[in-house]
Amino acid sequence: MIRKFLLPILLAAPLWMLAQENYCGTVQTDSDLAWLREWQASYNGSGTRGSDLIYVPLKVHIVGNDEGGGRLTLRTLYTDICNLNEQFAPTGFYFYIFGDIDYINNSDYYEHDWLAGAYMFAENNVTNLVNIYFVGDPAGNCGYFSPSGNAIAVANSCAGTSNTTIAHELGHFFSLPHTFYGWEFGLPDIDDQEQVDGDNCTTAADGFCDTPPDYLPERWSCFTLPVFTDPDGVEFSPDETLYMSYSSDECQNRFSEEQQEAMIDNINGPRAGLLTWEPISVADVESAELLSPEDNITNLFSNYTELSWSSVENALGYELIVSLTPTFTAISANIFTTDTTVILTELAPEKTYRWKVRVIAEGNTCEDYTEYRTFSTGAETLANDLTDLESDGWMVFPNPVAAGSGLMVKAENTWQSGDLLQVFNNGGQLIWQEQPGVGAQQHMIATNNWPTGMYLVRMTMDGLVSSSPVFVQ
Questions:
Q1: Is 103 among the domain residues?
Q2: Does pTM surpass 0.70?
Q3: 322, 360 in Cβ contact below 8 A?
């Protein structure tokens, strides 16, 4: 169905517009577009694109509230990176996560206004990287690029499978304006309204001649294409396929040729600092093999369930996902680890869980998960009783321990070569390990910088493994 609108009707909030008004909060001024306007004035239609990939480093900041709640899941993040590399493939850009993910617990940043967002960028940005922040509410928008803050903020709810928000904001980062540029604050002067015949395509709107006129500064559904009339009286519909428009996500699938060339020259010009890092190698890896526990095992401890899988060559780490549902929609744990063992300490008793793993390699977050296995927890939990611990031939004290104090492990027998002490956090991640001195019976563990909560101390001695929960307060 096609509906026809004259220009004045645009100002009356047409019914075909979607309810979500704040798709993108990016505001680019003429000064922000100075480089692009100079580039467009000199562009002669011959591109500089080569056959080599252009590796683009992303500094990922995952923001939660003060308690660490609400964070974007790794599962969604890795999906986002895979989406980006598909969306930018014609441009030759290949995005990868640079270094460690930066986790920030700050409620003022998690749901921020413009001022708090500026403070967040100033405090956490890393130079010569594309800084992207995943938050709960980025100033009331799905996302935005801040020219002054030189960073991108994206709402968790607007990330994930098939989203185009991140590609849209990265387009802004690499110099691109909206296809409807000039319409954001009302009806532009007649000379600034792009014409269908292209007479003013280099000076009106976004300045690209291969993106047709677009007068829609609001989110709209491409399944009901509107029709507008340009200053010459020529009717047209906006191009719903362009990422830099405001059409709905399912309709967008491309940057135009000129937009691609502008971004390539932008990263080789004012954004050249992104190219100063050592090139990465995109590693191909095999799938991991789930080892333990066996499929459909029952009566595991809800406060001590150990999952393990095979080591994979060239793996940088592994993503574990645990769910209460076979479709993995009710996530109980989503952990990235460099180890091949995770101990879960906060499962619910008498529940059935599914778990699977995928390999993360350098520049490669797109590998498939393993087939899942199933296990069930029982009603009983692992004891946290000092008498029980002493019967295993060792003890940990004091328990609870004050944060920053020493935690003493005392064994009944002397340690030998190959014995090992390890500590896991309440997410099951290995945070510390050491081999105690041969012949000793005591070993001190420093708890410096450990957040309060439950931990698991695991001792391997004479080939036998036993564990003790410890509480830091």
A1: yes
A2: yes
A3: no
